[in-house]
């Protein structure tokens, strides 16, 4: 479990995060949603230590990440997996070598054991036949699956995903969502996903945090989000024409009850 307590972050005189209090739960897909500029990315960067909070706490199972020494933070990051928006694969390395990279850096395993572990992770994301290919030779969806395989190679307790469906078609996005959701439950990981994808919200959002102008505006589960009376949340959720039509249908349904 990751607990955030009274978290503030400012850049010069601009306050971006304003007293965030929230819990990201073990074994669940925890989603952070909000408009561009709301503070989602800044919050995630504070969680993983890429930014230092102005004040507040980030507790990993009771351990305050903010107060840890530099060496303690390095050790803590070995419990984290990261999936970046662009997949961030190394173009000069094969798919297998990309997945092996964190193992080569941090694992005491032998070369044979590291290779076997990387192949297990590729098999888990249904890419075992692509291990000799280079990132430029595979699709964007396959690249994201390689990124997932690399992120779980070290058996992380915490998995952070920054817009994992960015640039993907709807069908491939569903594949990535299903993969992240199943891996989260299979390994009991605390998964945190920054997303604008409302399909992700409605299908895998087990714990959803909505940030508005730097503060926590709403938190709940996907089953409740369509019934919410929070105007800022509903304005965000139903921003597209399709979702506006869905909201109209929901309102009609409410009126008949």
From TrEMBL:
Highest rank taxon of the organism: Bacteria
Domain ABC transporter: 2-238
GO molecular function: ATP binding
Keywords, ordered alphabetically: ATP-binding, Nucleotide-binding, Transport
CDD domains assigned to the protein according to its UniProt record, in alphabetical order: ABC_Org_Solvent_Resistant
Stored InterPro entries: AAA+_ATPase, ABC_transporter-like_ATP-bd, ABC_transporter-like_CS, P-loop_NTPase
Family matches, as PANTHER family: INTERMEMBRANE PHOSPHOLIPID TRANSPORT SYSTEM ATP-BINDING PROTEIN MLAF, PROTEIN TRIGALACTOSYLDIACYLGLYCEROL 3, CHLOROPLASTIC
Name of the protein in its database record: ABC transporter ATP-binding protein
Natural source organism: Xylanibacter brevis
């Amino acid at each position: 479990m990751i607990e955030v307590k009274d978290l503030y972050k400012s850049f010069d005189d601009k306050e971006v995060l304003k007293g965030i209090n929230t819990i990201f739960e073990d074994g669940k897909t925890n989603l952070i949603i909000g408009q561009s500029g709301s503070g989602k990315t800044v919050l995630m960067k504070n969680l993983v230590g890429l930014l230092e909070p102005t004040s507040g706490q980030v507790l990993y199972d009771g351990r305050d990440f903010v107060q840890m020494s530099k060496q303690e933070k390095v050790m803590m990051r070995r419990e984290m997996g990261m999936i970046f928006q662009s997949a961030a694969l190394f173009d000069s390395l094969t798919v297998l070598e990309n997945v092996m990279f964190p193992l080569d850096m941090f694992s005491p395993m032998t070369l044979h054991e590291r290779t076997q572990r990387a192949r297990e992770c590729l098999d888990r994301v249904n890419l075992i036949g692509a291990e000799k290919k280079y990132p430029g030779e595979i699709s964007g969806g396959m690249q994201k699956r390689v990124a997932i395989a690399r992120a779980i190679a070290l058996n992380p307790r915490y998995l952070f995903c920054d817009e994992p469906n960015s640039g993907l078609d709807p069908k491939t996005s569903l594949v990535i969502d299903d993969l992240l959701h199943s891996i989260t439950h299979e390994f009991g990981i605390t998964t945190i996903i920054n997303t604008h994808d409302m399909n992700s919200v409605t299908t895998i959002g087990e714990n959803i945090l909505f940030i508005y102008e730097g503060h926590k505006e709403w938190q709940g589960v996907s089953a409740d989000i369509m019934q919410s009376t929070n105007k800022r949340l509903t304005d965000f959720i139903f921003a597209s024409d399709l979702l506006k039509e869905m909201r109209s249908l929901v309102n009609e349904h409410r009126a008949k009850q």
